[in-house]
Structure formats: structure tokens, C-alpha cells
Amino acid sequence: MKDVNGREIPPSPYEKNATMRLLGYQYSVPIFWGDDVVEAEIEQIKEARPYSFTLSAASDIFMLGYIHGKRAERAMRKKMAQ
Prior knowledge:
Order of helices and strands: HHHH
Mean pLDDT: 89
Radius of gyration: 17 Å
Helix content: 55-70%
Distance between the termini: 51 Å
Number of helices: 4
Number of strands: 0
Largest sheet: none
Structural class: mainly alpha
């Protein structure tokens, strides 16, 4: 695909592999960006890692952890229901 100036647009990272496709389907705004506590903690990590930090990677990793936490919670509830 090309942009309005005829330059190739790089492929979306959310089309790269199964994990990234999963993350691309998530609506992370209220979970990651809309929580003042999370925002403050992310800012602390950013200050501690000034040369190896991107907000986009932090958002993806945070959401992946959130997904795994939800899966673990559901598995535990299912196990207790049996």
C-alpha cells in the first residue's frame, strides 16, 4: 500500500504474527491509557529506562499481561466450578 505521496507504507506490526494480531484486536484505551495509577507507573518505568523504552511496546506488553491474567482468572473459576 502507498501513502498519498506514493511512498510505500510499512506493514502494521499488528499483522506480523499471531500474538500481534491478538493485541491488534484489543481495545486498550480505558485499561492502559485511562488509568491514572497505570499511567504513573508507566512513567516511572520510562524514567528508569530512558534509552530502551517505547510507549507502544509498553502498551502491547501491558495488554498481553492483562490477557494472560484474564485467562488465568477464567481457568481458576472454571476449575473451582467443577
